[in-house]
Amino acid sequence: MAAEAGMLELPFVRDDQLTRCMRLRFQSLQQKNVRPQDGEKLLCPNEHVYRVDFIQQHNLRFLRWDIQLERPGKVTVTGTSQHWTPDLTHLMNRQLLEPAGIFWKKPGAKEVECNEADAQEFGERIAELAQIRKVMYFLLAFTDGLEPAQLKGSIIFKA
User: Fold this and answer.
1) DSSP classification of residue 107
2) How sure is the predictor about 156, in pLDDT bands with cuts at 50, 70 and 90?
3) Which Pfam families has this protein been placed in (predicted)?
4) Measured between alpha carbons, how far is 151 from 159 in angstroms, rounded to an integer?
5) Which domain holds residue 116?
6) Is residue 34 part of a domain?
């Protein structure tokens, strides 16, 4: 659908290496019996790091989300507000964007639902951030039995 003229579809790409790196930070703290830094966001077992690579950064206008879930469940998409390199700095809770995009599929439903207002605001914010970065990282939290392999998602912009 995004192949229409003037539309740009940017997929969420799972970043397994970054997810592994953040999980190692958590394990390291546990093994050393050390507390995380004040306000540090540690990756929960149901959270995974994804990225969106902006092949175009300017003149993007958010159109819609294209989130497809193979089975019922819920995914919460939280953006990060700044560049961060987990091996150099740690992700802090204050670096997480609000609102988050929450998408869910009810048992027996064909369509994925979301809170339209939050999803719209979040998408517009991503379009703004695209002007200053080539890559944006997201934390996706899967609940209600949903797993990363059951998600296909992208953000569609008017270019």
Assistant:
1) T
2) very high
3) Olfactory_mark
4) 25
5) 9-158
6) yes
Tokens matching residue 5: 């003229």
Q: What is the CATH number of the domain that holds 85?
A: 2.60.120.390
Q: What is the pTM of this model?
A: 0.90
pLDDT in tens, 91-128: 888 889 999 999 999 999 999 999 999 999 999 999 99
pLDDT for 86 equals 55
Cα gap 96→78, rounded to integer Å: 7
Could you report the per-residue pLDDT of 1-33, keeping only the tens digit for each?
445 678 999 999 999 998 998 888 888 888 999
CA–CA gap between residue 59 and residue 127 (Å, rounded): 8
Give the DSSP H/E element, type plus range, for residue 22: helix 16-32
Q: Do the domain assignments include residue 48?
A: yes
Q: What is the number of helices (H) and of strands (E) in the chain?
A: 2, 9
Helix, strand, coil percentages for the chain (3-state, nearest 5): 25, 35, 40
Domain count of the chain?
1
Cis bond upstream, residue 107 (ω within 30):
no
